Amino acid sequence: MYLSIGPDHVVSVHEADDFTRLHLELHEIGPDAAGQALQAAGLGRLHGPDHAYLDLAALRGLASASATTPGWAAGWDAMVEYARRKEWLSADGDAVRVHLA
After folding, report:
1. Who contacts 38 (Cβ-Cβ below 8 Å, separation ≥6)?
2. Are the C-beta atoms of 40 and 58 separated by less than 8 Å?
3. Is 55 helix (H, G, I), strand (E, B) or coil?
4. CA 98 to centroid of chain Cα atoms
5. What is the arithmetic mean of pLDDT over 6-14?
6. So what's the pLDDT on residue 53?
7. Is 93 left (phi over 0), alpha (psi -120 to 50) or beta?
8. Average pLDDT value over all residues in the chain
9. Mean pLDDT, range 33-46, rounded to an integer
10. Where are the alpha helices (DSSP H) in 1-90?
C-alpha cells in the first residue's frame, strides 16, 4: 500500500491490499505543502526530508475503506507487527515511519 499527495493537497491511499510495502509519494507538491496536507487530513506529519510518520488509526480507517481482500485486518496487523519489529513505529506506537518516494 502507499499514499500519495498531489497538487490538490488530497491524500489518497492506493493498493490497500498490498501489505508488502508502505510509503508516501509526493506528486507536484513540495514538502511544506505535503506536511500541511497530512496534518489537515489527520494522517500524520513529515519527519525530516525523507520520512513521514503516519497515524496508524487514521491510516487504517482510510485504507480499510478501499480494501477488497478477505482477511484484510489480519494482513494489517501483520504489517504493523513487522513495522514494530523493525522499530519503525513511534515511541508511543501510534504512528509508523515511512519513506517519501
Report:
1. 5, 11, 44, 45, 46, 52, 54
2. no
3. strand
4. 7
5. 96
6. 98
7. left
8. 96
9. 96
10. 31-40, 56-64, 72-85
